[in-house]
Task: structure prediction
Amino acid sequence: MGMTMTQKILAAHAGLDQVKAGQLINAHLDLVLGNDITTPVAIKEFEKAGFDSVYDNTRINIVLDHFVPNKDIKSAQQSKTCREFANKYDILNFFDVGKMGIEHALLPEQGIVTAGDCVIGADSHTCTYGAVGAFSTGVGSTDMAAGMATGMAWFKVPAAIKVVLTGKLKPTVSGKDVILHLIGMIGVDGALYKSLEFVGDGVATLSMDDRLCICNMAIEAGAKNGIFPVDDVTTAYLTGRSRREWKVYQADPDAVYEQTITIDLSALESTVSYPHLPENTHLAKDSGDIKIDQVVIGSCTNGRLEDMEAAYNILKGKTIAPGVRVIIIPATMNIYKECILRGWTTAFIDAGCVVSTPTCGPCLGGYMGILAENERCVSTTNRNFVGRMGHVTSEVYLASPAVAAASALTGYITDPATL
Amino acid sequence: MNAKGFVHTYPDNVDTDVIIPARYLNTPDAKELAAHCMEDIDADFTKRMKEGDIMVAGWNFGCGSSREHAPLAIKTAGVSCVIAKSFARIFYRNAINIGLPILECEEASNAIAAGDEVSIDFDTGVIQDITTGASFQAEPFPPFIQEIISKGGLMNSIKNK
Result:
């Protein structure tokens, strides 16, 4: 029986010729990842179990990104715990303030994750790396602890949904609109326990930043992972960047999919997820007069260079609407620097925005843009749950950087195509 | 192993942000986390909660963030089992890895009401609503996962290998 791309990567890492959906396996890990919130819990479990060595100090990645530069004493303590552990075990890829970026923008950018890898991360958006042709999935801190100690993790081999992409996106429409549209179609548990495997002639038209954004939010449909085939776009991205040789896995022609969904990219329009679930999608152009208080452009979903460029193209030479606060957060130090070199940061500030160093900050209601009672935010982040960005009565509308920037100018949810 | 307690009910898609809001994730301390468990959707939960109580929820319980702080807060608050129609996959594996008992059972989730007294036999997967007399059969865990649970969680299970 044929295997999906995900199943082939899992089989190879479990040392098996064949796996099938539902099978429970132990697989070798190429990378283990944690952040400043999840790693301290993993360290506790690691030490409690009595381990005194890691399986491979070059394969463990600890990125301080959620609450750094630290927002309070307790979060500073958590960073310190990570720092001391990284020093003790000589963790090669430990990223502290000044070197860090938001983990799921940083690891691909630095060439740490590559095609064919099997990756776990104690962060739900670890599924991002499917964009470069890796199997990667979010887990908890105990899995991270076990992964650091043994280099192994247990998996239930997922069934798959095939998502066939055709056509090409319109200029103001991006990867964010693709994934929000898909989540709107299948719901927040529409891909529960499954892989989302993206295929079709539309794939070649999507940039790496679009693919990273699409895979990033696979978890918001409940998926175990999202994955793209390795093509010319992937090879161009990995060449000169990947720190290790990569391996290309392809789905078998007779791979079994539970469901096939076709999306015509050329028919998509700017899409917004209303509170309080990512599946609650509407077209930006149908949003009427939804007045907003804040805009956030950044995060592991949309803090990459193309996202900054989309915001710049709309905000340059303009002024944001009175009464709106706009927070722009480039996702890595390289992207941050590039925004300065290209003059985008100046344009953002001249338009009335603030520009922060990389942090997850407001996305999860940590700091740097917490919402008050009844406030509304258009955000390029990934979740709009009750209380996600602040007060329990505040509201988050998920959208692309283009929609967020257009809304910043008008003060209302706005389709950039109508500007 | 058995559990017995009174039921707290929850809807579909209970996310880990409401189980334990991110503003409290600046500590890994389980007791501190438990003190804020469910506070954004059920403000009185920690006051009503008695040791051994049971949560009964709808589809996709524990969706969203991978924070293990969520099952840890529920376990430390004293909850003896979470029954749901389905669990989000990271919450599902986290619960198994840390030894928080969970059961998938659509019929039980539909029928059991808030405040009912319920008993659970984990060996057979039988859920008994003592208040109404109804009984339900949950899907048992596969042997691979039962082994992790019987060893008291993932770290104990890999340590013994």
In short: Chain B has a mean pLDDT of 95. DSSP finds eight helices and seven strands in chain B.
